[in-house]
Every structure is written in structure tokens, then in C-alpha cells.
Amino acid sequence: xxxxxxxxxxxxxxxxxxxxxxxxxxxxxxxxxxxxxxxxxxxxxxxxxxxxxxxxxxxxxxxxxxxxxxxxxxxxxxxxxxxxxxxxxxxxxxxxxxxxxxxxxxxxxxxxxxxxxxxxxxxxxxxxxxxxxxxxxxxxxxxxxxxxxxxxxxxxxxxxxxxxxxxxxxxxxxxxxxxxxxxxxxxxxxxxxxxxxxxxxxxxxxxxxxxxxxxxxxxxxxxxxxxxxxxxxxxxxxxxxxxxxxxxxxxxxxxxxxxxxxxxxxxxxxxxxxxxxxxxxxxxxxxxxxxxxxxxxxxxxxxx
Length: 304
Hints:
Elements: E1 4-5, E2 8-16, E3 22-31, E4 34-39, H1 50-58, E5 73-78, H2 100-113, E6 120-125, H3 127-138, E7 143-149, H4 158-173, H5 179-193, H6 196-201, H7 203-214, H8 218-230, H9 235-240, E8 244-250, H10 258-267, E9 270-276, H11 283-286, H12 288-300
Parallel strand pairs: 4-5, 4-6, 6-7, 7-8, 8-9
Antiparallel strand pairs: 1-2, 2-3, 3-5
Helix pairs in contact: 1-12, 2-3, 4-8, 5-7
């Protein structure tokens, strides 16, 4: 049992890993109620969901918000394999990594370890959205609803693929001193992540995300880059779901703009779209209250 971070208790669970070994997965667990499984984006860790989770666990907003009480939730927020404080078990330089399907199966093992038998709401942001779709596909009996935040079903453009390969190559070529590579990754991505107002008026959030990226395991970042680079188009998978789906976009998202998120919502059979104002690619971080309200309103409509 680890530290308590504003109602979130840090835990470590062991799941089946590579070469018949177990790996330790770090996660943050809080509350009692409908289980919410949050899947973080790239190149972050689970704490990117902290602000939104803390609001959800309050059970109500501040007086005067007129949004009513939140439902009772249990928030489960893992650091994906090789990221944050979770183990990777890669000791030798490699240019391969972890498939999106493996991340999804890891999540199933985590829920089994936590003895969660009831259906869950799965929320994924960006890379987490790719994983959420695969999780709902491979472990559909576990899923009551799907939340896709700032993500897509299509594969990367040639330029995007090259960018992922560049990260892999740089980390491979400096395996023992690769932490410095994440400095350049953070510097390149940070200005694109946020809405203009976040970037100019919330330096604490910008600095927090920069530090999160720079402190990550570079080998885990490389493994995740490989997994995203190798992923398949999941449009047909999403279209096959008979699940309620919430699609959330950021008004100023440069990676997955609102128009692309609206098109994503049209793929699913039972989807609704919510756009978060004054947010870029990271609404749960930039506008956690608006994100939490949208999520709570969506879950209220689901028949468990």
C-alpha cells in the first residue's frame, strides 16, 4: 500500500508478464461505487487523471454549480506497463515494444487482481483510447460503457509513423542514457498539448505535464511508441459495439480536432459527443470539472 493522494491510494499489483515472469503494475485506487477504469495517454502516467478523479470522488460539485450530486464511483487508474512506476522487464536494447492488445490484456489482469467482477466504465485518452477500444473488444463482458477522449480509430499518417520511429531510434541509440531523449520529446509536444489559455495562464499544469514526461521510463516510452506505430485501424471494431459511447473532444485540440472527434462519434452505434471549451488535447487536465460533469451525466444514462 502506497501513499494517499487526495482520496487516491497508491497500490502495486502483480500480473503475468513476459517470459513467464510477473510484473508489478502501479495504480491509484479510490472510492466505492461504479468502477471507472482510466487509461492514460502518451507519454504520461496515471496521474494525468488525478484532478478529474478527485472531483468525481467528492460526490458533488461546489455549491452554486447546479449540476447535482455525482454518482458513487470507484476510480482505478493504472500506470501502463513500462510507464509511470510500472515495470517493463526490458533490460536489453530493443526496437520492439508492447502491442495495444497487450496493454488491453494487462488491464483485464489488473481488474482480476483487484477482484472486480462488475462491469466497468472504461475511459481512455489519446493512446488510452486506442487501448480502451481493444479492451472493450477483447474483454467486452467487463464493459458497461466506453469513453473516448481526444483519440482516433485510424492509423498514423506517414509523418506520424516517422515521428514514432524517430523516438524509438533515439532511445535505442542511447539506451543507457536515454532519459535525455525525453527532454526533447517534452519540449516538442508540450506547446501542442494545451489550449492557448492553459498554456499562458496555468503554468503549474504545463510544468506538471512536462515533469511527468521527463520523469518517465524512456524504454517504456519507446515500447509504447512501437505499439502505437504497429496498431491497426479500429473503426470496424468500434462500429461493432452495442455499447453506450461518450466521445469527448477539446475545443482547441491540435492532434484530434473537434471535427475529427465528431466523425469518431458517428462511427459508434450509440454515441454522443461533448466538446470541452478552453481545452486542447488534455481536457481532464485542463478542464477537469467540465470533464467530470460530462462523464457523470453520461454514466447516469447507463443501465447497470
